Amino acid sequence: MTIVCRFAPSPNGFLHLGHAHSALVNHAAATRAAGRFLLRMEDIDTTRCRPEYEQGIIDDLDWLGILPPEPPRHQSRHFDDYAAALARLEEMGLLYASFETRAEIARAVLAREAAGRSWPRDPDGVPLYPFSRESMTEAARARRKAEGEPYVLRLDMGQAYALAGAGLSWHEAPGDPLAEPLPVQADPAAWGDVVLARKDVPASYHLAVVMDDDLQGITHVIRGRDLYAATAIHRLLQALLGLPAPIYHHHALVLDRDGRKLSKSTGAASLSSLRALGTTPDEVRALIAHGLEPASQPTPST
Ligand code: GLU
């Protein structure tokens, strides 16, 4: 079996050392296995993604010496694939339209908490959706859709879980991306009724990543530990859509001096700015090694 890995950044900003680490780990695994390393532009959010960021990604990978020979796949050119997957889930009765604004959702969570109940959070710490499919009748939903009101499509997690979620696991390669993977119990229900198509974008990260990992024949999904828990949603979608499950490896994150995950919002230096300062690719590798979080791995379990 040929090993196929991918680096899948969103071109909504310049790459930093955390991205470089992910790309390098993927490239190293593909090279070691005499496999393929692919690039994917996760650009479904066409309002935030920009050509100059995309060019920046290409320039940075080229500078690091790991630019794949094949052109990248652009998610923004494949909305039809995501629409087809949504149609299948809709036919299975697993999707529903939800019309609330972010502010309405935040207010509902506050109201529930003011009533003395602590409202559950998803693994990223975001409050679960405080309504449900039953909060509105199908007739009301159809009327609001017909009136042209914007809506998101949510996965009915209760039904999806009943269909494919119980006993679901994914395979995680601990330590080394090419190590023998171990099963990890998937807990998609911890995420509640996740959004699979947004108001402004007819897809979501979760749906698009699962479809593209299949369409690009990815055998090993290698990415940061911040996406470990979300793998449960990806595994559930694979099971619902009848897609093969790749092996996963969630690598350590690069942290800043304050122990925070690097991000644009915390002012992480971009690779292009490091390059402009005369930093070499070898020095980038050393900086990454210096900033890696301690080696504790999420523990696979059955
Ligand atoms: N596009 C995602 C990001 O930039 C990565 C998705 C993935 O590797 O699954 O964080």
From TrEMBL:
Keyword flag Ribosomal protein: no
InterPro entries: Glu/Gln-tRNA-synth (IPR000924), Glu/Gln-tRNA-synth_Ib_cat-dom (IPR020058), GluQ/Sye (IPR049940), Rossmann-like_a/b/a_fold (IPR014729)
Keywords for the protein's UniProt record, in alphabetical order: Aminoacyl-tRNA synthetase, ATP-binding, Ligase, Metal-binding, Nucleotide-binding, Protein biosynthesis, Zinc
A Pfam family assignment: tRNA-synt_1c
An example Gene Ontology biological process: glutamyl-tRNA aminoacylation
CC annotations in GO: cytosol
Family statement: Belongs to the class-I aminoacyl-tRNA synthetase family.
Protein name: Glutamyl-tRNA synthetase
Organism of provenance: Azorhizobium caulinodans (strain ATCC 43989 / DSM 5975 / JCM 20966 / LMG 6465 / NBRC 14845 / NCIMB 13405 / ORS 571)
